[in-house]
Design goal:
The protein is α+β, with helices and mostly antiparallel strands and 328 residues long. The chain is built from 11 helices and 13 strands. Strand 8 and strand 9 (95-98) form a beta hairpin. The mean pLDDT is 89.
Length: 328
């Protein structure tokens, strides 16, 4: 970046509100657009009225930009990055790069300030869920490691970060339901979105809590856990392909021996057990749609229909042909 070409501004000065809707119980939602002078895109804010708010943005900037964000509300934010990488720069001089398809939880004090560093022409897309401190403390009160890190690091630096790793299949399924460019004015649809937000908060906090416990119990570091999560995502998304331990280990940036040993310890099943589980669960969905057993077998990654039928029957106690018949 050339310093003279960088725009320094407040994050909210980039935006202009174009629509505001006030719902019952003092819940005000609004939509903003990036001002044409700075780029193009949308910012959507949904206030649930219970100490939780969701805000999404999807935009491109016409200039390298360092945008300052201030907050006088203590709490946490769950950040899910669906777009290009960007960087947070904090007052104590540290920087944190938010990678594409990753998520984290950030904790902040009552006097929080940071700078968001973004580049010209990049595509930025995030879903964020903010939680006020009073509610947050109750949500994580029983999760000792998370609670201690939040309190100690936030008191020391004004902020704290818990890395989550890659966005998994369950999170992505929920995130795909979030509108990025238009605000829904139908109250029933807004209530449905609020349900998705609560689901996302619950699953994400539980996932990070589990991860922290595993780190402690299994003596794993965050890098190795991220590799294991990456391996699981490969299995979830590419279950229909021929996947070997060697391929999964290479793409997950982990040694084959560690993958075998640590995957079993972390998830409670081997790589092949998880692959088989995912294939058979997807097979159930396809059979409900009246797809033939032979076609389902092929679609979920089995070359031989007889082998598939044997595995399906053993797992679910019913043959795939009979299962299909029940839904036809």
């Amino acid at each position: 970046m050339v310093p003279e070409s960088v725009l320094h501004t407040n994050i909210y000065d980039l935006l202009e509100i174009v629509k505001s809707i006030k719902n019952p119980f003092s819940r005000e939602n609004f939509m903003a657009k990036v001002k044409p002078a700075f780029g193009d895109g949308t910012f959507l804010w949904y206030n649930l009225g219970n100490g939780i708010a969701s805000y999404t943005y999807a935009y491109e900037l016409s200039q390298d930009t360092v945008a300052t964000l201030y907050s006088d509300v203590a709490g946490a934010v769950l950040v899910f990055n669906l777009g290009d990488d960007f960087t947070h720069a904090y007052q104590n001089g540290t920087k944190y790069v938010i990678k594409k398809n990753s998520f984290f939880i950030g904790f902040s004090s009552h006097a929080f300030e940071m700078k968001i560093c973004m580049a010209q022409g990049k595509s930025y897309k995030t879903v964020n869920v903010g939680i006020k401190e009073e509610l947050l403390l109750r949500l994580i009160a029983h999760y000792g490691d998370m609670y201690a890190k939040m309190v100690n690091d936030t008191r020391l630096n004004g902020y704290a970060i818990l890395e989550g790793g890659e966005i998994d299949g369950m999170q992505r399924e929920i995130l795909n339901l979030f509108p990025l460019h238009e605000m829904d004015e139908d109250v029933l649809n807004v209530l449905k979105l609020e349900g998705h937000i609560m689901h996302l908060v619950h699953d994400t906090i539980v996932r990070i809590m589990r991860m922290m416990h595993k780190m402690s119990d299994l003596n794993l570091d965050i890098a190795k856990i991220n590799s294991l999560e990456r391996a699981r995502n490969i299995i979830y998304n590419e279950y229909d392909k021929e996947l070997s331990i060697k391929q999964i280990a290479y793409r997950s940036a982990i040694n084959e021996c560690y993958l075998k040993k640590d995957f079993k310890a972390y998830y409670g099943m081997t790589v092949y057990e998880m692959l088989q589980t995912q294939r058979l669960e997807m097979a159930k969905k396809l059979l409900k749609n009246d797809t033939s057993v032979k076609e389902v077998s092929s679609k979920v990654g089995y070359k031989h229909t007889g082998h598939f039928s044997k595995l399906f029957t053993k797992r679910f106690g019913i043959s795939p042909s009979m299962y299909r018949k029940n839904f036809s």
